[in-house]
Amino acid sequence: MAAGGLACNAILGNEPRTIFDGGDAAGDAPGDVTVGDVAAEAPADGSADVATDAPDAGAADAITDAGDAADATDAAEGATSCADASADPLNCGVCGHSCQGATCANGLCAPTVLATLTQGTSRGIVLDSSNVYFSSGSVVDVCAKSGCNSPPTMLTSTQTGDVQGMALSGTDLYLTTYVVGPDGGDLGDVEHISTFNVGGGPSSLVRTRGHAGGIVLCG
User: Fold this and answer.
1) What is the rounded average pLDDT for all residues in the chain?
2) Handedness of CA 86, 87, 93, 95 (dihedral sign)
3) pTM above 0.85, yes or no
């Protein structure tokens, strides 16, 4: 059975090999050493295989410590830059909340004037992603959120009277209006205009007998 195993090992190239150790300069006695897979074993003289040494745990610890120190520094700088949220216009009320050029007091941004009404009273205001639409008497003006012309741009003027309510759906703006009729009674209108139709006239959707106030869109 042993002979069969030796024969198989010889065929597969796994048979033990004998290496002659002639001794070393320190005076070790020579001798025969039988080894299996030489590549998988440590060198006969006990020297370390530098290529297979384990990583230096101390170096890994140093890298980790340096990363932790950098994170701590960043956190400290962030805390310092947001130290006073009650008066900092770049961090007003909460870190990262900018007053967009206005002052901050008691954690609240001071209001800024976007536009001055061109006429009458404003009773309606709506917004889209870029603009603010607001009524000024019987006129609807438009301003960019980033700033307004002086005077603001007129989008439209109603057919019947002062704007009472506004609603926006995409680029479709709907208005309710109010005016005193010839007989002294209240008249109202529901009107529509596209926000792209700057300077155009709205179309009347329905005339009401009475005061048309607020407006709500569904769907």
Assistant:
1) 73
2) negative
3) no
